[in-house]
């Protein structure tokens, strides 16, 4: 297992503090600079499939029972009816 310094890939105008974060090494043919794969942490329902329930009446906060999406509705302009937020105007 050999650790070989390959150089620094930071921008030339980067501060000394951030330049230290961009040192690249190679260990057994694998670079220390890699791309991370994104992982899905939360998935929301499609907008038409939400089923809302009033969870905090003081804040007019509604939560979808299916996915946990939280939103608010505007009194006088929107209404919560049968789990759906309906525009009144």
Explain this structure.
The model has no long low-confidence stretch (mean pLDDT 88). This protein has one helix and eight strands. The chain has two domains: 1-35, no CATH class; 47-87, no CATH class. Strand 2 and strand 3 form a beta hairpin. The strands form three sheets. The chain has a three-stranded antiparallel beta sheet with strand order 1-2-3, with no helix packed on it. A three-stranded antiparallel beta sheet has the order 4-5-6, with no helix packed on it. The chain has a two-stranded antiparallel sheet with strand order 7-8. The protein is mainly β and 89 residues long. 4% of the residues lie in helices and 37% in strands.
Number of strands: 8
Envelope shape: elongated
Number of domains: 2
Tell me the series of helices and strands, N- to C-terminal: EHEEEEEEE
Strand residue content: 35-45%
Helical content class: under 10%
**Main sheet strand line-up:** 1-2-3
Counting helices, strands and paired strands, the structural category is mainly beta
Layout: helices, strands, pairs:
Layout: E1 3-8, H1 16-19, E2 23-27, E3 30-31, E4 52-56, E5 61-64, E6 70-72, E7 78-81, E8 84-87
Keywords for this structure?
single chain, 89 residues, mainly beta, 2 domains, 3-stranded antiparallel beta sheet, 1 helix, elongated
Could you give a quick summary of the protein structure above?
With about 90 residues, the chain is mainly beta.
């Amino acid at each position: 297992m050999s650790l070989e310094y390959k150089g620094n890939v930071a921008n030339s105008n980067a501060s000394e503090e951030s330049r230290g974060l961009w040192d690249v090494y190679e260990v057994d043919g694998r670079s220390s600079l890699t791309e991370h794969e994104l992982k899905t942490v939360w998935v929301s329902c499609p907008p038409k499939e939400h089923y809302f329930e009033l969870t905090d009446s003081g804040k007019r906060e509604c939560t979808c029972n299916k996915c946990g999406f939280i939103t608010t509705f505007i009194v006088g302009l929107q209404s919560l009816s049968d789990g759906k937020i309906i525009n009144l105007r």
